[in-house]
Specification:
Length: 377
């Protein structure tokens, strides 16, 4: 019999958490023949990522996944064989009682946040708390051997490389999205939280000798873009040009389209966790806007990733890339940081591809979860 999986997602971080769990649920069904229920407390947020979702339904099937609304009043529900609490969300008390009542105890895991910090390897797969004899385990995605790896569908990197080699496919995809960049323009995607450093970066791009087409999916950074342009009501479909810079606002798109958007671009500014990982699979230089946490503990995670990611770069390129990421995450003046990075562009570009291929040698997150369950039983 197929293993039954329950994945619980409480949407708190502007689509990052639902982005991760939706990818994971689909991959477990498609590649590992798992029977998956995905419990989501905010179907309207989910709808942005999966337009086929009917927000009025408490239960529906999408891409082979049994999608359930996680209601305030929990219905009587049997527990699954594998239970994943995504990003430390708290399971419904009645569901925890159902786990404890199972004849065979379920495997209960906390799928934690992605981090490159050294301690993650030591904590991965360790037991956590118990509830009436049901043991919970830590499960950490990560970049190093000894972690759970990253979400990566089978054949993803081959698909990406074939797409990037196919100029007609890229042009057709962009045209279908209403994007018609100048022939010599560099393409940059911008998906970020609010950032005071954006204006200085846009100033540089607008006065550059090379044309830039900036693609901005709808999101929290849009207010900063609007202020820089000096316009009102900036929304999907808008196109504005200032000097060498063309700014185009895109609608929120399904995940497969967003992947291809990243594959089309020369540089990708991303945020949170889901888009951060997908930008790495694009094999192109990137800029990460990490989610801010109390007491600036997010900066430890940022520094840990930078130390790992830049280890193979030359000292000058490493310094330039680290400086730009740190300035961006501090909301600082991006002008000089961007110019300095451009001095090392060929090396940084080669490194982005080699880093992608290196990470692709590790087991992907869905496979690692299945392997843990199989070893556990």
């Amino acid at each position: 019999m197929k293993a039954r999986w329950d994945i619980f997602c409480s949407v708190v971080d502007n689509y990052g958490d639902i982005g991760v769990t939706w990818r994971l649920a689909r991959q477990l069904v498609a590649e590992h023949a798992c029977d998956v229920r995905l419990w989501v407390d905010d179907l309207r947020a989910f709808e942005r990522m999966c337009p086929e979702i009917d927000v009025q339904l408490s239960q529906q099937w999408q891409a082979g996944v049994d999608v359930r609304h996680w209601p305030a009043e929990w219905p009587a529900t049997s527990a699954a064989d594998v239970v994943i609490a995504a990003f430390a969300c708290q399971l419904p008390p009645d569901y925890m009682e159902a786990m404890a009542a199972c004849a065979r105890t379920p495997l209960w895991m906390n799928l934690d946040y992605l981090s490159a910090e050294d301690w993650v390897v030591g904590c991965h797969r360790l037991p956590s708390v118990k509830f009436k004899g049901v043991q919970k385990y830590f499960f950490f995605p990560g970049f190093r051997p000894g972690t759970g790896g990253l979400l990566r569908e089978a054949g993803l990197l081959d698909q990406r490389q074939a797409f990037q080699r196919d100029a007609v496919a890229r042009e057709t995809f962009l045209q279908d999205m209403g994007v018609f960049p100048a022939a010599d323009a560099q393409l940059i995607s911008l998906f970020a939280y609010e950032n005071a450093g954006l204006a200085a970066w846009l100033d540089v791009l607008s006065t550059d000798g090379r044309a830039t087409h900036l693609l901005v999916p709808e999101g929290r950074i849009l207010g900063d873009v609007q202020r820089w342009l000096g316009v009102q009501g900036l929304a999907a479909g808008a196109v504005h040009q200032r000097g060498a810079l063309t700014v185009q606002v895109l609608p929120f798109v399904p995940q497969a389209h967003y992947d291809r958007l990243l594959w089309c671009c020369d540089f990708n500014a991303v945020r949170g966790e889901d888009s951060f990982v997908r930008a790495q699979w694009a094999g192109r230089p990137l800029l990460w806007h990490i989610y801010r946490q109390d007491e600036d503990i997010h900066l430890d995670k940022l520094d840990a990733f930078l130390a790992l990611y830049t280890a193979a770069l030359s000292p000058a390129a490493r310094t330039a890339l680290i400086a730009m990421w740190q300035v961006w995450n501090a909301g600082g003046d991006m002008a000089q940081a961007w110019k300095k990075l451009l001095e090392h562009w060929p090396e940084v570009s080669r490194h982005a591809e080699s880093w992608c291929l290196e990470q692709g040698l590790q087991a992907d997150l869905a496979t690692a979860l299945v392997q843990f369950y199989e070893s556990w039983i």
